[in-house]
Amino acid sequence: MLFQGILIECFQKINQERTTSSVYNLLIGKKAIQTIQDARFYHIADYYGIYPDLTKTDYYQQLQQLLERNYLLADDEQRLQITKKGQEWLTANKTTLAGFYGSTYKNMIESFKQRFLLFIQTFTNIAKNEYRFIPITDNHEIEQFVKGFYKQYKHRSMVLLQQLYKELEHALSMVSDLEASMFVDRLTSFSSYGSSLQQLSQDYQQSIPDCYLTLQKVFYHLLYVQEYGEEYSMLKLFAKDLGTADTPLSQTAQFTRRLLKKQHTFEEIIQIRRLKANTIQDHFVEIAMHEEAFPFFDYLDSTIYEEIKEVVHKKQTYRLKEIKNNVHPDISYFQIRLALVLYNK
């Protein structure tokens, strides 16, 4: 129950401070500032964006099963809390949930996967002199990447396949037999079409979400080992230039950041951008999360910060409303949000 285990852990960590939809937004990788903050504040960033295709129907079906089996319990406000049974499951299965790097590789994993899979399909067919096949992806950028790869290395196709086989053999030796086997069954190569999620679900007697996340976990592992291991020259090629051009900031926040860098005041930025104050505040919080040199104390003096920090410690909460109710009335939600970002730096 990999997927359900992840749900249990997420609801344990947010500790009834967020709604059920907040975890759904986390898993699909919603780019809202609230979701990104939740991922960081509640230490669940490893699960950010790990299941971008998850439907709300499937998500709530899984939650309902956990409620019916008494792993989770809903309170009067329909916020979910972990039960004793859920805690016991987490304690016994904690290691099975490790190995996701959602926030770290959010800008890389999908392109890395498609490059990797299309390369294997293309080069195994070419090695057998088969040049007519239906590519497993119609993504133009991915197709261009593999075509460029082929033009550069077409005379060494067998050497590259052998090198990749060697790297995969080593990398997959570090994951479970189930993960390695399911991953291999998913690959499309010459005269062998990879199993669908439905087929994997039947073959391995696992739910479709569990199969999907098992495969995701292996791809996160491949991204991790190519980054930190020297012996993965092929895997490094598939990851080359991915994510480096992406900024963690939304496009609109980037515009606000440029104005901030030019020493414009908060009020001036509102006028220039013709946006509401709340929207610019959202941008500031987003910028503060990603920039070490953000001028927190231009908007938040040390006394206010210490007061907010004391409430967080005393109440053990990140709920904005609860913090607001326990600090001086003049302290704004904006200051609380900035303080929480600084607190989690």
Structure description:
This protein is mainly α and 345 residues long. The protein folds into 3 domains: 96 residues, Arc Repressor Mutant, subunit A (Orthogonal Bundle); 131 residues, no CATH class; 93 residues, no CATH class. 61% of the residues lie in helices and 2% in strands. It contains 18 helices and 2 strands. The chain has a two-stranded antiparallel sheet with strand order 1-2. Helix 1 packs across helix 5, helix 9 crosses helix 11 and helix 10 crosses helix 11. The longest helix has 21 residues. The chain is globular and about 75 Å long. The two termini are 33 Å apart. The mean pLDDT is 92.
Q: What attributes does this structure have?
A:
Helicase_HTH; 345 residues; Arc Repressor Mutant, subunit A; 3'-5' DNA helicase activity; 61% helix; mainly alpha; Helicase Helix-turn-helix domain-containing protein
Proportion of residues in β-strands: under 5%
Integer count of domains: 3
What would you call the structural class?
mainly alpha
Largest sheet: 2 strands, antiparallel
* Strand tally: 2
| Mean of pLDDT | 92
Number of helices: 18
Q: What is the terminal separation in angstroms? A: 33 Å
Strand order of the largest sheet: 1-2
Radius of gyration: 23 Å
> Low-confidence segments, ≥5 residues, pLDDT <50?
none
Topology as H/E string?
HHHHEEHHHHHHHHHHHHHH
Give the helix proportion (percent range). 55-70%
- What overall geometry do the principal axes of the alpha carbons give? globular
